[in-house]
C-alpha cells in the first residue's frame, strides 16, 4: 500500500491553528465588533500570520460568518424527552445559553446590526445560522404533532418563533434579566398556546 504525500507547496490546515483563529475571531468580535474587526488583529491574537487566515477564508466577512455559524449551530439541540414540554424546555435552555454566552451576548447585537445594513450578511445569517438551527428545532414540533400533543395543522414556522421571540425580545431588545423560573413560564405559555 502506498502512502499519499501532500504535494509540495500545498497548504495543510492544522486543527490547532484553526481553533486558535476561531477563538481569536470570537474574542475580537466581542471586544471591537464586526466593523472594527481586522484580519491583522485576529492573526496577532491567534499568534499566526495573516496567510493562515486567508488559507481558510477568502475574506473577513466569510471568516466571521463561518466562525459565528459554527459556534451557533453547534449550540442548537434536538432533545427527545418524550413530551413537547420537555423538548421545548431543553430547546429554550440551549437558546438561552447561546444568546447569554459571555462572548456571544456581546457579538449578537452587532451581528444583527450588520445584517440590517449588509444584505449579504443577512442572507448568510438566515442560511448558515438560522436555517440549520431552525431545522434542528423543527423536530420538537414535528414529534409533538405525531404524538397528538398539538394539532396536525400547527404552523411549525410560527411555533418556532414564539418561544425564541419572547426570550430574544426580553433579553436582547429590552435588556431585562430572565430571573428564576422564567424559562419554565415561557415553556408553559408556548405549550398552552399550541395545545389550545
From TrEMBL:
Listed Pfam families: TetR_C_11, TetR_N
Superkingdom, taxonomy of origin: Bacteria
InterPro entries for this protein: Homeodomain-like_sf, HTH-type_TetR-like_transc_reg, HTH_TetR, Tet_transcr_reg_TetR-rel_C_sf, TetR_C
Domain HTH tetR-type: 15-75
GO molecular function annotation: DNA-binding transcription factor activity; transcription cis-regulatory region binding
Matches recorded under SUPFAM superfamilies: Homeodomain-like (SSF46689), Tetracyclin repressor-like, C-terminal domain (SSF48498)
Keywords recorded for this protein, A-Z: DNA-binding, Transcription, Transcription regulation
PROSITE patterns associated with the record: HTH_TETR_2
Location of the DNA-binding region in this protein: 38-57
Official protein name in the record: TetR family transcriptional regulator
Native organism taxonomy: Bacteria, Bacillati, Actinomycetota, Actinomycetes, Pseudonocardiales
